[in-house]
């Protein structure tokens, strides 16, 4: 279901998008652009039947209110960005799962998924207990440069070593999010991506020094 990350890096490199060479903030910026209102409206609402919903786990619905609560509980900003990444990736994968091959929203959703996969490489250095590898489908120690055929003129990113511990509360949420056995909830696809974008702005704006003025 989930493509190997190294494979995605290869595809991106071959396409010449150079996405793989970008850092956390550049990738978040690209995601923000892709999640802009007209696109969410077209691809996540107009292209779906009226009132269409999909069933997702409660933990996948990460709202700004959740983040505020977790911040009040002194959860680190890095952990929050990590949680956002997991919630948003799961949401996008769920949307992708319900889209047939030729659906007009498929290409868009796949591009979101590729950007998120590239971001996942940035976060693959995080440690959590029990090991992250249980929940993340990325090859933990994948060396993209070894798996991808060399492509002239395109820098292939090395996973950054962002060694930092994930807060326990976030580790638990991420675990539940991937467990597939907690309570479900019917949500509109656009609402999932609305949350994705709002929380992205909330967490990356200051961190990446985007001019919010
Ligand atoms: C966000 O809060 C809602 C309740 O308001 C809860 O159901 C959901 O699990 C929370 N999500 C996360 C990721 O904490």
UniProtKB/TrEMBL annotation:
UniProt keywords, alphabetically: Signal
Signal sequence range: 1-23
Coiled-coil stretches noted in the UniProt entry, renumbered to this chain: none
One GO MF term: macrophage colony-stimulating factor receptor binding
Keyword flag Signal: yes
Top-level lineage group: Eukaryota
Stated name of the protein: Interleukin 34
Species annotation: Gallus gallus
């Amino acid at each position: 279901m989930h493509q190997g990350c190294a494979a995605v890096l290869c595809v991106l490199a071959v396409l010449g998008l150079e996405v793989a060479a970008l850092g956390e903030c550049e990738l978040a910026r690209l995601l923000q652009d892709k999640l802009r209102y007209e696109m969410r409206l077209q691809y996540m609402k107009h292209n779906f039947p009226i009132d269409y919903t999909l069933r997702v786990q409660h933990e996948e619905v990460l709202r700004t209110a959740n983040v505020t609560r977790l911040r009040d509980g002194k959860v680190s900003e890095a952990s929050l960005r990590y949680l956002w990444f997991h919630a948003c990736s799961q949401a996008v994968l769920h949307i992708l799962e319900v889209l047939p091959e030729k659906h007009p929203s498929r290409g868009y959703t796949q591009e979101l998924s590729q950007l998120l996969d590239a971001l996942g490489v940035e976060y693959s250095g995080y440690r959590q207990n029990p090991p992250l590898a249980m929940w993340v489908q990325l090859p933990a120690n994948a060396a993209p440069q070894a798996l991808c055929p060399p492509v002239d003129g395109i820098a292939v990113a090395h996973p950054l070593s962002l060694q930092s511990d994930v807060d326990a509360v976030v580790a638990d949420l991420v675990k539940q999010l991937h467990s597939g056995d907690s309570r479900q909830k019917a949500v509109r696809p656009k609402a999932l991506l609305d949350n994705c974008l709002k929380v992205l702005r909330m967490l990356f704006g200051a961190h990446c020094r985007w001019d919010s003025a």
